[in-house]
Amino acid sequence: MMLFGKVSQQFYGLKKLPWSCDSRYFWGWLNAVFNKVDYERIRDVGPDRAASEWLLRCGAMVRYHGQERWQKDYNHLPTGPLDKYKIQAIDATDSCIMSVGFDHMETSNICC
After folding, report:
1. Which of 43, 58, 42, 65 is nearest to 111 (CA)?
2. CA distance 74 to 56
3. Predicted confidence (pLDDT) at residue 108 exceeds the cutoff of 70
4. pLDDT in tens, 31-87
5. CB 108 within 8 A of CB 51
6. 29: CB partners within 8 A, 6+ apart
7. Terminal C-alpha separation, the chain
8. In whole angstroms, what is the distance from residue 112 CA to residue 109 CA?
9. Burial class (CB in 10 A: 0-12, 13-18, 19+), 83
10. What band does 25 get if pLDDT is binned at 50, 70 and 90?
11. What is the sign, positive or negative, of the torsion defined by CA atoms of 84, 90, 91, 94?
């Protein structure tokens, strides 16, 4: 406990943390982490579910075929058979999706 107190006092005196030289670098790194393609996850849950998870994690919205409402919340993704929910539309306005994550879409059967 005493060690934590000494470390926190040292950081308290700093105006800027040593590793935060550029906050844009941090946010760019974090966005890249969110966009990283997990091929094992695609195999496990299917391409549409994996693409939905990626899009929602990055702040986009997804609408499934046969449904009128947009899915906005990652924590409320529909459950049930994995092949039941096919992506029909995507609204990526103000999201952090990056081209490195587009492999999520490669195997998804998005309806046009």
Report:
1. 65
2. 5
3. no
4. 777 778 889 998 999 899 999 999 999 899 999 999 999 999 999 998 888 888 999
5. yes
6. none
7. 58
8. 9
9. exposed
10. confident
11. positive
Residues in CB range of 35: below 8 A, 6 or more apart: 54, 58, 96, 97, 98, 100, 101
Report whether 86 contacts 75 (CB < 8 A).
Answer: no
Q: What are phi and psi of 22, to 5 degrees?
A: -140, 110
Residue with tokens 């935060």: 20
SS3 label, residue 93 = coil
Closest of 92, 16, 90 to residue 59, by C-alpha = 92
Q: What is the CA radius of gyration of the chain?
A: 19
Residue 109 tokens, joined: 């059967």
Number of helices (H), then strands (E), belonging to the chain: the values are 5, 2
Cβ(71)–Cβ(80) under 8 Å?
Answer: no
